């Protein structure tokens, strides 16, 4: 990767972007309380999108199939993660980093509440 030294590029800061996230559609995620929103959608032509994911406790797990690579960092609470295809189960706690490779089929639950920041290698239309 080359960096142009002749042009200046500004960085972005968006305060409080984790507040008031849109609820994930009930039709796609029945019985769950998930909230998600991109803060940056392919900014400046980047191949990345990033934002926040919040999950509240329900009896139903939130199932998500990744069509792209994504990383998450748990900011609050904990996520119980399960991939039923591989049998993998784990708990991701505050400050843990998570990588979901493209094709991952993940069931998310939380005993109470969890909030994560994510960055995905995807176009903004895939959320």
From TrEMBL:
InterPro entries named in the record: EutQ (IPR010424), RmlC-like_jellyroll (IPR014710), RmlC_Cupin_sf (IPR011051)
Domain of life: Bacteria
Name of the molecule in the record: Ethanolamine utilization protein
PANTHER family from the UniProt entry: ACETATE KINASE EUTQ, ETHANOLAMINE UTILIZATION PROTEIN EUTQ
